[in-house]
Amino acid sequence: MNIENKVAIVTGVAGGIGKACALALANKGYQIVGMGRSTQPNLSDFDGYSLTYVSGDISDENARCRLFDTAQGNGRITVLVNAAGIAPRVRRDILEMTEESYDEVMNINTKGALFLTQKVANYMLAQEKCDGIRGYIVNISSCSAYTSSPSRGEYCISKAGVSMITKLFADRLASEGILVNEVCPGIIYTGMTEAVKGKYDKLIADGLVPTGRWGMPEDVAKAVLALCDGTFGYTTGASFVVDGGMHIRSL
Fold it and tell me: N or C: where does the chain have the smaller number of CB atoms within 10 Å of the terminal CB?
């Protein structure tokens, strides 16, 4: 897709997977309009690139509208990457999970992605196709969408919801030239996982991940970029697993 002033909206852009995805897209000429909750994030990695940062909580409708309005004013929105996500503040057994924790995780991870996708999809529907495509939407789900972790059930449920959001929009938008896919990362080294690094270091050393290493945000970003550059132009509603082989069942 060769378009001047092509814009990519990326949530969670202040760090981790969101930042890596935004940098990968920026390197391909996209103007990035990103959102994060931090009011003073370190965005020095974007020096030399086009980045407009919008501070806000993706679970809030007003924040989503500000993000969308900013992006719309920068050019043609051709990519949306829903990367914003949080883990529970406290890991609790599902028998002790609180409604407050459930609501916070679901509102950001699932509701925010759902209604931002809805808004961007309606915008994309109104623009002309370019090479048969109106736009690309990529959701960052997780291996937790299909892997049980009873100590953080709200996170697993939220990511399973993201997987269904992907399928629903892919089904609805395929005939309109809007491709919707998801990337399911495994154990990725980010600020979210740094707090439990010792646990995952041991699990990886014990063979949980066949490739024998942590995943990095850049590993995920490479998959996202391929889903947004036409490489998989005949693919929608798919889950791209980036987990070092952790999903393999072996004896």
Answer: C
Catalytic residue among 146, 155, 189, 234: 155
The answer on pLDDT for 204 being more than 60 is yes
Structural domain contains residue 56: yes
Count of residues in the chain: 251
Sequence-distant (6+) residues with CB within 8 A of 47 are none
In a domain, 105, yes or no: yes
- Residue 247 in domain: no
Alpha helix locations (H) across the chain?
A: 16-26, 61-72, 99-106, 112-125, 153-173, 191-194, 197-205, 217-228
Boundaries of domain holding 11: 6-242
**Is pTM beyond 0.90 here?**
yes
Q: What is the pLDDT of residues 47-83, one digit of tens each?
A: 999 999 999 999 999 999 999 999 999 999 999 999 9
Distance CA 114, CA 133 (A): 21
Q: Please state, in angstroms and rounded to a whole number, the distance separating the CA atoms of residues 120 and 249.
A: 37
CATH number at residue 230: 3.40.50.720
Active site residue 200: no
Q: Has residue 2 got a pLDDT over 60?
A: no
8 A C-beta contact, residue 6 and residue 30: yes
